[in-house]
Amino acid sequence: GRGVLPRAMAALGAYRCIECNREATELYRDYRRGVLRISICKSCQKPVDKYIEYDPVIILINAVLCKAQAYRHILFNTKINIHGKLCIFCLLCEAYLRWLQLQDSSQNTDPDDLIRYAREWDFYRMFGIASLEQTSFFIGIFITLWWMTPEMLKRKSDFILLLKALLLSTYGKLLLIPAVIWEQDYTPLCLAFIKVFVLISNSQAIRVTLNLNRILPWFAIFFGLIFENGVVYLLQKMGWDV
């Protein structure tokens, strides 16, 4: 008969079923002669992760549609390590967009080197403000979730996983790239749409990571926005042009 060569298995709980969020030890079994079979979840009797057979473009489309299964596949069953790079790139786009708005409001066209240096410093300042706002937003979310569901964030790894999920879910800010390229064509409505889309993605990331209902993630996001706006208010009181 045909022998079974299980896939090299990670520790128990390394993977998750994308349907019911239960822990799984493997995503598929590798039989001889290159025959693969997706593992079946013992809890819901569905494939543990159907997306391992899907094209990355299809997975991306499902993630854009904020499907929980796609989020579980990306967060638990893949090894993606672009969280920091994606976050910095999004912040750079946001900072550049704010910098353009600041330059549009300035009527000074003097090419003097001092003016150029001041404009360059304005970009760095906008990047710092955007970073501070996002950090404040995340801190507000963590405080709310830790206060309401302390059992969900007992270990350091829980905080790290949630942080990675939040960083990945900010991918919607990449939509700022067209606004940077066609800087005269974007509208406040488009920017508001991007903001709402990012918040929806953040909510889905929290829900999937901690296996919560739909209400609590939005509650955490609401307090995150309050915390973020509080920081913006303090910066404005200090005379910063935010």
TrEMBL record:
UniProt keyword terms in alphabetical order: Endoplasmic reticulum, Lipid metabolism, Lipid transport, Membrane, Transmembrane, Transmembrane helix, Transport
Pfam families documented for this protein: Arv1 (PF04161)
GO terms under cellular component: cortical endoplasmic reticulum; endoplasmic reticulum membrane; Golgi apparatus
Domain of life: Eukaryota
Membrane-spanning ranges: 123-147, 159-180, 186-203, 215-235
GO annotation (BP), single: intracellular sterol transport
Membrane topology classification: Multi-pass membrane protein
Location within or outside the cell: Endoplasmic reticulum membrane
Alphabetical list of InterPro entries matching this protein: Arv1
Entry annotated with the keyword Aminoacyl-tRNA synthetase: no
Family: Belongs to the ARV1 family.
Function: Mediator of sterol homeostasis involved in sterol uptake, trafficking and distribution into membranes.
Protein name, entry field: Protein ARV
